[in-house]
Amino acid sequence: MANLIETVKKAAVEAIQASNPVAFSFGMVVKENPLTINVDQKMELTEEFLVLTSSVKSYETKINNQKVVVDNRLEKDEQVILIRMQGGQKFIVLDRM
Fold it and tell me: What is the architecture, at CATH level 2, of domain 21-96?
């Protein structure tokens, strides 16, 4: 009976790992245009794989009824925190470090 329980536990852990759950990573901007980020010194992600938050991109907002552009674009050599989305195809660039 103990063997069965351990086998089920092992199968559950392997299933979770195989599904590529969300994970945090660190990266460095290697190119600004087009945006390219090197993740954990293993792979380079281009814009098509990145989802940018307002903390790391330019956006327009209103302050006192005036439109203002906030320029938070990433620059070369900045370090960033990323979240790999389930499935591993897209990364959310959460913020700078």
Answer: Beta Barrel (2.40)
